Amino acid sequence: MPRITTRSLVPLLVSSLTWYCSHGASTCGNAGLTLLQVTEGKSNGGVQKMSAVSASMTDVADVTTATQIRSQFFKVESLGASLTGGLGALMKAVPYFTLDTLDRSLTTPQIGQGFAASGEGLLDEILKMLSNSDQAPQLEHLKGQLGKLFENLPSSVPGLADMVNSFHDTGNAGSLIQAFGTVLDYLDVQVTDILPSNSSHEVSNYLGSLKDIFDSLGDGTDEFELGSLDDALKAILNGLRTATNDLAPGLGNNADVLGNIMGQLDPILGSFFGTISDFQKQVAASQVCWKSTDTIPREKARPSKCPEKHEFDGQRWCVLSENSSESSVGLASLLQDSRGWPVQTSCRSTEDCHYPGCDQPDHVTCYAGACYTGTVDSRCKGVANLQRLDDGGWCYEGRRDISCPAPARPHLVSPQCDADGDFPHQLGAWCYAACPAGSVPSKAGHLCKSACGGKYPSSEATAPLLCGKTQQAVQLAVQKMVSQSMQSVIGIGIGIFSGSFSAASLPGTFASLIKAGKGFAHPKCPIGA
User: Fold this and answer.
1) Could you tell me the residue range of the domain that residue 161 belongs to?
2) Which of helix, strand or coil describes residue 258?
3) What is the pLDDT of residues 58-75, one digit of tens each?
4) Which of 26, 71, 81, 113 is paired with 472 by a 20 to 30 Å CA distance?
5) In a domain, 243, yes or no
6) pLDDT, tens digit, 9 for 90 and up, residues 243-272
């Protein structure tokens, strides 16, 4: 964080004292204007403080400045303008925190840009308290230094970036309000530490009053979420009363004064609630969706996986591969040997001949591409080899041999779906692909219907038709719907609150709350997202 030296404040306080003396302050005397010097000692936060060469003169200027600030706060229009200016300045950061980057968190530079936008306006309000407009040139250097302080807030204040991103990622207004409160506390220490005690007290009160109002906006938001416009406005009014009494004790107890200041703040409050409401709906739309009744056809293909030694015929059956032994046996043609006897060309080796019908106990062999089998037979004892018998066999080495019958042609085999392929699920004569993320098969299995998954994997038992990116998002959506149901019956915009405020007196605030209370349709869950 850049160091803010109080040397830059010397022109400010000297100019202030000159102005007071020139307007007849009797205690000024004839002392010169070189009243202050910068010490090398450091105070809290690393900001250098000033000490007085002439304590009495410094105290006079300090007290006079503080008195002037306090007197301005007792003027209702001035007080309202200061609060409106401060809140309006802080609100300038909100558009930076609602950037359409919902798929990723804000970066530290983006957050710094937002607070820098706030800082310029807020510093203007603080500097107005310390000097009249004629001294603006002397204050520009100080303003530039403090502006850098705002840019570096995300890296200087622990947890600040997390608070802002909590709002950005979930739409939780409480996180944003906490972030502004933390910034105001930090600024209170940094800025008031370089001012004399009485002046710093008034500036500190001002920053604290802005924090009081922000806290009340958080309380009001909570009350409105629970369905009570009346309690929401009461919370805001109580915060404004506290802030007013901090700056001008007793003034906040006057209902007319509060009404006047509330009217001045109305455009700022309306903008705040409107911006937050719109962004929350944007976040909700990106975080939660409705399961739709839409379906898409499930991708399918014919089964084509065949068992071993088979191949797919390209249509709907598995047949024996051409190079398999079963195929050779089944498709071999009858030949005649040299004697004209029919034989079955059916084998490449004896192993191919072991099948039903070619399994006599004493002899099985493959010879010249044909299978033969035989059994020892008394009729062939002492008979020459190849002597034919009346039953179609012949004698060979004391056996009755025969040419093996052709094996039965294998049956056609139905192909199956490939469990490791793109279409693993079989329904009837088709194989179906898995449904894309965000969908599940229909009851019959032929279609894909919407389901929680893909970008919206989370669900909640209390809201079976909602899907969300996180379970918290679904819970917040349910809470919002319940809140909107309650808000729909409270008569927003037609009643009068505490006899003082109505839609006519606070048009910006009421219009934004009415808009926030209206329901909106979550998008349909995309199938295949």
Assistant:
1) 6-218
2) helix
3) 677 778 888 888 888 899
4) 113
5) no
6) 999 999 999 898 888 888 888 888 888 888
